[in-house]
Amino acid sequence: MDLATIIGIIGGAAFISVAILLGGSFSQFMDGPSVLIVIGGGLAATLIRFPLSGIIQAFATGGKVAFSHKKVEPREILDKIAEMGDIVRKTGPLGLENIELDEPNLKKGAQFIADGYELNFIKESMELARDQYLTRLTEGQRVFKTLGDAAPAFGMIGTLIGLVQMLANMDDPSKIGPAMAIALLTTLYGAVLANLVCLPISDKLTAKFGVEEINQTLIIDGIVAIRDGKSPALIREMLISYLPDAQQVALLAEEEAA
Alpha-carbon distance 151 to 197, whole Å? Predict the structure, then answer.
């Protein structure tokens, strides 16, 4: 579970709620037509840009990354790959059938090695899985970015609708208030939806893409090296460049101390 996302959304909503309560009541900020304009319009604009299946997949991916994101350090992957190389060196490829792996693509690669698949098949299959996964992250990022851009725009559309209704009923003071509510609240709803939910999730998916691109490439190169029969020490040397600078320095210091 990603506490940062939960704390951020709940915290932002709490601050807004406190500000509302200090100046009035929630009933003043509830307006059905404004919700329809912002959410309905934003979803409609997103549907025009993307296929329905892509939007459903994007919401699933975005929710998974935003609320259950678990960061895996490249150092952890490198250590696990070196351990796998050591197992293959000592017990052969079948020894990988008993190793516990949490990362799906790494687990798939270990199974490929244990089953004796050819090197080219392993590499191509894992690269395809990586590319499909990164494509899902990219599509998710684009969908949430589109919704984040559309929400304030439809908030402005709602503001214009409310102003037109207000100006059309200037002779009836009882209709000026509801029209002004639509005019102002749609802008508020659009800004909150975009800046508290959609755009932050879009940025999180972008960050996840960068991390996973490195991790998945590291996994593929590690699995290929194991299948090619390289020693664990050589595998470490080959893959150390994937680590951040601080982790590279720490790993080299550990190897020198050993």
Answer: 11
Tokens 């929630």, residue? 26
Match 């329905």 to its residue by tokens.
Answer: 52
Q: What is the distance between the alpha carbons of residues 220 and 214, in angstroms, rounded to a whole number?
A: 10
Render pLDDT for 11-46 as a digit per residue (tens, 0 to 9): 998 998 888 888 777 787 888 888 889 999 999 999
Helices and strands, counts by H and E, the chain: 11, 0
Helix extents (H) in 73-198: 74-91, 104-115, 119-168, 173-193
pTM > 0.70: yes or no:
yes
Give the chain's largest Cα–Cα span.
Answer: 89
How distant, in Å, are the alpha carbons of 43, 82, 239, 253 from that of 234? 51, 9, 9, 17
Structural contact between residues 198 and 148, judged by C-beta atoms closer than 8 angstroms: yes
Other CB atoms within a 10 A radius of the CB of residue 251 amount to: 16
**CA of residue 247 relative to chain centroid, distance:** 24
Among the listed residues 97, 98, 100, the one whose alpha carbon sits nearest the alpha carbon of residue 112: 97
Residue 101's closest CA among 119, 77, 82, 121?
A: 77
